[in-house]
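Curious: why this fold?
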Amino acid sequence: MNVKTEAWRKWRDPQIVLLFCGIFLVSVIVITALVRERIVNPLTNQVTVTGQGKVAYQPDIAVVVLGVKISKADSAENALNQLNDKINGIVNAIEGAGIKKENIQTQSYSLYPQYDFKDGVSEQSGYDATQKLSIKIEDIKNNPDYVSQVIAAASGAGTNQVEGISFDVSSVSDLKQQARILAIEDAKVKATELSQATGTELGKIIGWYENVIGDYQAPIMDLGFGGSSEKSIPNVPAGTQEIIVEMGLNYEVE
């Protein structure tokens, strides 16, 4: 057997063939991954500059949550009758203060037995009934006392629960757009300053991102009110709030 024949037999050995096939497949995978990485994530010099825009505003909408609790009525029917009478009076009073019907919604409604413990024994002592209303109060920017007036009207009609108040604004989309524009202008000024400081030339903007870091809605305030006396009505100024938007601009570096 000559040398060529022996070498040919070795190359035809299945183990050697499988080894070279494996090396070839791995090479193809690696090359494909590198090409794909270069296509999907081309190597470009980029820098991101972040700007911030703030817009102050006064809320023009308030949402008050208030209601009535009936305690230890002698029957479920009596508890509901008392509750309905109170709520009807409150709704009439609120509407009389200028609130539209569509701005008064029931948030929760419940009826349940009440139990007392005597000598270690639980005994039913009556029925409790509760109904809470969510009241949307508009145009508070032009009428700062409107919220207090509505609460006073409701308390005079029998409200014995006021859970809290939140403030909102009807023009939130416009305010956010104003904040975006201010943030972009701020980012452009910073980009120019950084370019001059580093001695680099910035090219075109090739991307951006937005981040809202200041919410337009205030957290719910606990009014701490639990009686029907007008003296218990708190002063509830809406104050001034802010929308804060960050804009990041991605520049090419030439």
Summary: The first helix runs from residue 3 to 11. The chain has five helices and seven strands.
